Amino acid sequence: GVAKVSVRRQPRVAVLVPSHHEGAALIDTVRTLIGQDYAGPVSIYVLVESAKDSSVDALRGAFSGRRVEDAGACEVLLETPLREVRLVTTGHRGKHAKLNFALDRFSAEFFALLDADHRAVGTWLSSALTTLELTGAAVVQCRKMPLTTGRLGQVWDALLSHTAFELLNRAQWALFGHVYFTGSTAVFRAGTLKTT
Q1: What is the mean pLDDT of the chain?
Q2: pLDDT tens for each residue of 129-147
Q3: Confidence at 2, pLDDT banded by 50, 70, 90
Q4: Where are the alpha helices (DSSP H) in 10-115?
Q5: What integer pLDDT is reported at residue 171 of this predicted model?
Q6: What residue spans of the chain are helical by DSSP H?
Q7: Three-class SS of residue 136?
Q8: Helix H or strand E segment including 115
Q9: Whole-structure pTM over 0.85, yes or no?
Q10: What is the enclosing helix (H) or strand (E) of 47?
Q11: Is 112 in contact with 128 (CB distance < 8 Å)?
Q12: Is 31 helix (H, G, I), strand (E, B) or coil?
């Protein structure tokens, strides 16, 4: 079976945020991650292709603690005892390639994935880690909020991302014993994506 995690010991979580020209909107995404109610350490990795990404200047302006590491590929934008924000230049355009780049280079007991155009609710990490602990699951798919400010966009996102996938997953579980994983907002044990 899968080992359970004790949320009381508060393991380190690495949050991967693949971004492609999200601009200043990405600042809200990062702030929702910094503001998580989870009391353990959280490392936030914003993954961009290059310094030409429209998110880079916005993030540099919003977070002043800039320090360059890893031969210029990683900039520390914020560093506190429990939270850090790093801007990582991957050299890759695709989401999958950015995620593979990060998974090969960073370590944590748990990884979380949040799309750059979403906001995490304040209890996201703590509730996902509790679910992992109670169920022994390897992955917890979570809900998120779109960054769009328009009501129509939020309604559309809620209908597609929540209602439609929930109905699809219930049907797939009943028929085939598995569910559809969208991969846009999830928390998973570190070894989960590295197994063959």
Answers
A1: 82
A2: 998 989 888 888 776 555 5
A3: very low
A4: 25-34, 54-62, 95-105
A5: 81
A6: 25-34, 54-62, 95-105, 124-135, 151-157, 165-176
A7: coil
A8: none
A9: no
A10: strand 42-48
A11: yes
A12: helix
Count of CB atoms situated within 10 Å of the CB of 13: 24
The answer for residues whose C-beta is within 8 angstroms of residue 95's C-beta and 6 or more apart is 18, 20
Angle between helix axes 25-34 and 54-62 (nearest 10 degrees) is 50
Integer CA distances (angstroms), 13 to 20, 22, 33, 188, in order: 23, 23, 11, 10
d(CA 37, CA 40): 9
Given a contact cutoff of 8 angstroms between Cβ atoms, the answer to whether 110 and 191 are in contact is no
List the structure tokens of 117.
């155009």
Using DSSP, state whether 77 is helix, strand or coil.
strand
Amino acid, single-letter form, for residue 123: T
Q: What is the rounded CA–CA span in Å between residue 46 and residue 73?
A: 12
